[in-house]
């Protein structure tokens, strides 16, 4: 029919099969939540009103016998793609042609954003196989096709290669930096891609899956502003060096505590007997608590990892006052004493506020608590991010202050959250030994161990990354301050706490909308012990482009949410 749009799939059965635990599949037939990928894509075309669908195979795969389409779909499987009439079949259409090269995962809404004679390429773009979607007018498609003469095999090869060249010169409908993480095309080539596709297709449970399983974002297509790692480090050269010993690192058991604490001791200029290493700070907290069985006093809002392991009667929250949530150490000392807590905890700089307590105040607090027979645990996981942060570290006091314990995550400053590496410092070797006994025998993996040896080679790059990140943070703060009604807490770290406008939806509802409609994930603070917790978001400083995009999204979303009630969405 003249003027109608048809869809033509160019299917490549020469590529390696996708191997899953359930079996091996050609890419077009890999199951995504129990449904063949190609079936999903044809259905997406149908939802967009495209009923004229054709499948062009570069091999005689017999797909028409293995692949069932909806009865309403008028489909022609061109298994005679070896023959010279392929070109004439492609020419014989007067409307637009949606040329879908390969099987890139897409939703029907994506097709609306592709104008005539433009395209949208998949994230795994290859010049020799332009996986993507291209809307071509009849004239442009004909110009891309060769003359229909020559041997059948030559015609097939020439047709596809000539099309590929023509497609490579098309303008893209949307630049890559304008696509959110849930709308970009995905070229499915392996089991990880199939897992990503299943995540994207499970829209009904998307928010629940993100809330019940934190992490693993390398295989979850979401723009994540939640985890708190240095996005400027490490450089590519670090990964190149890591690869040189990867085989040995992965095939051998890692070292035990006694070896790894020696390396951390050299890094921190501390005696190894003062150090325990853990699979992240939470690993060390659990081990430490099992030794101390503490009753704690802790300023809130703060990192929940210190509170979660304890029963309610063993934790006392010292609620910090807005707008900046700065800690008054003298008032906190009196609170800890009055509540009967035997252990006080300070996260410095604090998470989620990004506020730093001066060295003199923390040192005073440690001494004052010690004189009253109480311990102080200081979490310095973010101490490297402020320009003067390291000068405010109290690691140098652990030997002289027997009641002081310092814990620190290394994954955050080094931008390597996946290595799960942290250490504990205390001037009490007996306590440290007791903590070590509570930890698994091989609790640090080989890649984390090897990383400790590589990091000194990149000391200059680390300092450069921190300087750049501080500039990124200030620019991000400036962007956020342009969001009407949004109150921004000045931060000294790689994350920023914001209070939502009074007339906006709650932080939990905003998070839901950002996930479902923008493919953006943020941390809402409703779980925190603080006044108006449901009005606060914590945003991670990422690349400047990502930060600008999030600020733009917040301006648009909050402007809309102030006029629409939660019950209407």
TrEMBL record:
Its EC number is 2.6.1.-. It comes from the Bacteria. GO terms for molecular function: pyridoxal phosphate binding; transaminase activity. PROSITE patterns: AA_TRANSFER_CLASS_1. Pfam families: Aminotran_1_2. Its cofactor is pyridoxal 5'-phosphate. Residues 269-553 form the Aminotransferase class I/classII large domain. Keywords: Aminotransferase, Pyridoxal phosphate, Transferase. Belongs to the class-I pyridoxal-phosphate-dependent aminotransferase family. This is Aminotransferase. It comes from Mesorhizobium sanjuanii.
């Amino acid at each position: 029919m003249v003027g109608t749009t048809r869809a033509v799939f160019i299917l490549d059965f020469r590529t390696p099969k996708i191997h899953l635990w359930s079996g091996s599949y050609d890419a077009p037939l890999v199951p995504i939540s129990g449904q063949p990928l190609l079936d999903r894509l044809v259905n997406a075309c149908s939802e967009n009103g495209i009923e004229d669908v054709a499948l062009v195979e570069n091999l005689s795969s017999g797909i028409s016998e293995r692949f069932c389409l909806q009865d309403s779909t008028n489909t022609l499987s061109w298994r005679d793609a070896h023959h010279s009439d392929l070109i004439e079949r492609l020419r014989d259409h007067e409307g637009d042609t949606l040329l879908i090269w390969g099987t890139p995962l897409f939703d029907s809404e994506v097709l609306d954003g592709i104008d005539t004679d433009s395209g949208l390429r998949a994230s795994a773009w290859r010049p020799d196989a332009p996986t993507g979607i291209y809307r071509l007018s009849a004239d442009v498609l004909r110009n891309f096709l060769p003359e229909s003469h020559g041997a059948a095999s030559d015609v097939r090869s020439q047709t596809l290669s000539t099309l590929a060249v023509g497609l490579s010169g098309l303008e893209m409908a949307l630049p890559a930096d304008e696509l959110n993480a849930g709308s970009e095309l995905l070229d499915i080539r392996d089991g990880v891609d199939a897992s990503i596709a299943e995540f994207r297709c499970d829209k009904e449970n998307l928010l629940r899956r993100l809330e019940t399983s934190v992490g693993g974002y390398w295989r979850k297509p979401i723009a994540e502003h939640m985890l708190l790692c240095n996005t400027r480090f490490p450089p590519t050269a670090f990964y190149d060096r890591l690869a040189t010993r990867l085989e040995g690192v992965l095939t051998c058991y890692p070292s035990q505590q006694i070896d790894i604490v020696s390396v951390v001791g050299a890094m921190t200029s501390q005696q190894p007997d003062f150090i325990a290493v853990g699979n992240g700070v939470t690993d060390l907290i659990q081990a430490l608590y099992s030794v101390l069985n503490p009753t704690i006093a802790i300023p809130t809002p703060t990192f929940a990892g210190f509170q979660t392991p304890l029963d309610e009667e063993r934790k006392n929250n010292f609620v910090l006052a807005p707008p900046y949530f700065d800690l008054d150490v003298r008032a906190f000392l009196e609170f800890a004493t009055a509540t009967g807590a035997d252990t006080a905890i300070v996260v410095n700089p604090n998470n989620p506020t990004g506020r730093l307590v001066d060295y003199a105040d923390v040192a005073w607090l440690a001494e004052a608590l010690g004189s009253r027979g109480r311990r102080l645990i200081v979490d310095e996981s973010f101490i490297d991010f402020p320009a003067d942060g390291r000068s405010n570290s109290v690691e140098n006091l652990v030997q002289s202050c027997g009641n002081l314990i310092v814990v620190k995550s290394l994954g955050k400053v080094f931008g390597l959250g996946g290595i799960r590496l942290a250490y504990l410092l205390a001037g009490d070797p007996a306590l440290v030994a007791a903590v070590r006994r509570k930890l698994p025998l091989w609790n640090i993996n080989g890649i984390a161990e090897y990383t400790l040896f590589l990091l000194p080679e990149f000391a200059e790059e680390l300092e450069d990354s921190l300087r750049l990140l501080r500039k990124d943070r200030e620019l991000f703060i400036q962007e956020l301050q342009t969001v009407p009604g949004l109150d921004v807490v000045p931060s000294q770290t790689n994350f920023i706490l914001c209070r939502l406008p009074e007339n906006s939806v709650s932080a939990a509802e905003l998070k839901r909308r950002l996930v479902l409609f923008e493919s953006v994930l943020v941390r809402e603070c409703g779980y925190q012990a603080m006044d108006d917790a449901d009005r606060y978001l914590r945003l991670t400083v990422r690349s400047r482009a990502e930060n600008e995009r999030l600020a733009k999204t917040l301006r648009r979303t909050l402007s809309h949410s102030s006029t629409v009630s939660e019950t209407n969405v």
